[in-house]
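Most newcomers find our protein records easier to grasp once they have seen one. A learned vocabulary of local backbone shapes supplies the integers on the structure line. Here is such a record, shown just as it appears in the course material:
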Amino acid sequence: MMITLLVLAIVLIGAMALLVYRLATFALPFMLMLEAARFAFATGAGRIGAGIVRFFAGVASFGILALLFATLRAPVQQASNYYNGAERTLGQEARIIV
């Protein structure tokens, strides 16, 4: 029974991490879109102008964030790639010397 609860806790923590990632991917562009529309409407753009600003702000913010998520890597992933590459290089040098 206790092992089942521990496994369930680990699975739920993973699900929460996935939810946070999804919210960062989709909710942030949505909030930026709403704030840009509110600013445009407050400065006199009207409803149609605010809607156009909202659309382009949403597309631009989603595109920028999608590009950042695709190109940037987590520091842990960068460190593991560094160490794996260093071991591979060291192994090749050791073979050449021997």
Q: What stands out?
A: Residues 64 and 70 are 10 Å apart (CA to CA).
